[in-house]
Design a protein that fits this description.
The protein is of the alpha/beta class and 314 residues long. The protein folds into two domains: 2-143 and 286-312, Rossmann fold, CATH 3.40.50; 145-283, 3-Layer(aba) Sandwich (Rossmann fold), CATH 3.40.50.2020. It has helices spanning 10-20, 60-76, 105-116, 145-154, 170-180, 222-233, 250-257, 286-297, and strands spanning 2-5, 27-31, 37-41, 49-53, 81-86, 120-124, 139-142, 160-164, 183-191, 197-203, 210-218, 238-246, 263-267, 280-283, 307-308, 311-312.
Length: 314
């Protein structure tokens, strides 16, 4: 087994390698003056079972090209099997035609990963689970719930209710509510623009409750902050937001600073600088991904990784 890393989230790759007990593979990833990516694998990979770790967070296009080029270099160096480990799968929100004459970019990206030479995919908390079907190669889809569950349990929060900030996140919120043994509520929202969201109504009761607001990702934080404002107006005592992928831009950070969200709980699937003025708790998924990599290498089942103290994530 060999593990290589792109440049999008090297700290996570190093943590995964440490959990497994091996060193990251030696490779050069650089740029020519015109912006083209250059890759050179600096060790023998002939006949090896290779895992390439690369999150496709912003700059998304650059990180995808880096992934494609690393995979191609490994394929041409005669690696036996190449698994693309993509903790955060970019373009996942473009998974259907919701307007005339628009692409299904999540499917196109899946085709490109396979065309580059990947034999298998390992990813986490896809925006839409049906994206697994966009690939004609095996996909192992993990969830961050086991890690976030342990953290939320350790806080011993009383009178808690789990809330989904939109209808699309009900399945994830339901998994949390079952595991934590608390009620479930749903916020109905209306998207006004790519960065503007209006929370319209609440289905469920949060009056006098501590709210756990769960979602798969946030970028501009419009959905989370709008939902938190509605929840506070309905009598919620506190709001903790829990998202797997926090791809926060300047607008999102500014919104969180001025929001009703008391704490943001997220994971290290994407690399981001420290954020001032917002209480952010980052949980590591290196152990979860490392265990999955070991089991894939040994042709073992990854089924038990979906199980945790509170139940199952699927």
């Amino acid at each position: 087994m060999k593990i290589f890393s792109g440049q999008s989230n090297r700290p996570l790759a190093e943590a995964i390698a440490e959990k497994i007990g091996i060193h990251l593979g030696q490779c050069v990833v650089d740029q020519f003056p015109d912006g083209e990516t250059f890759v050179k694998i600096d060790e023998n990979v002939r006949g090896a079972d290779v895992f390439v770790i690369q999150s496709t967070s912003p700059p998304t296009n650059h990180n995808y090209m880096e992934l494609f080029i690393i995979i191609d270099a490994l394929r041409r160096a005669s690696a036996k099997r190449i698994t693309a480990v993509i903790p955060y799968y970019g373009y996942a929100r473009q998974d259907r035609k919701d307007k005339p004459r628009v692409p299904i970019t999540a499917k196109m990206v899946a085709n490109l990963i396979v065309a580059a030479g990947a034999n298998r995919i390992l990813t986490m908390d896809l925006h839409a689970q049906q994206i697994q079907g966009f690939f004609d190669i095996p996909v192992d889809h993990l969830y961050a719930v086991p890690e976030t569950y342990k953290y939320i349990q350790s806080k011993n929060i009383e009178d808690m209710v789990v809330v989904s900030p939109d209808v699309g996140g009900v399945k994830m919120a339901s998994a949390y509510s079952r595991a934590l043994g608390c009620q479930l509520a749903i916020v109905a929202k209306q998207r006004l623009s790519p960065t503007e969201v209006e929370s319209i109504t609440l289905i469920g009761d949060v009056n006098g409750k501590n709210v756990l607001l769960v979602d798969d990702l946030t970028e501009t934080a419009g959905t989370l902050t709008s939902a938190a404002e509605l929840l506070k107006s309905k009598g919620a005592k506190s709001v903790i937001a829990c998202v797997s992928h926090a791809i926060l831009n300047d607008l999102g950070i500014d919104r969180l600073r001025n929001s009703n969200i008391d704490e943001l709980v997220t994971t290290d699937t994407v690399l981001r600088p420290p954020i001032d003025g917002v209480k952010v708790t980052t949980l590591s998924v290196a152990g979860l991904l490392g265990e999955a990599i070991k089991r894939i290498h040994n042709n073992s089942s990854v089924n038990s990784l979906f199980e945790f103290a509170g139940g199952r994530t699927s």
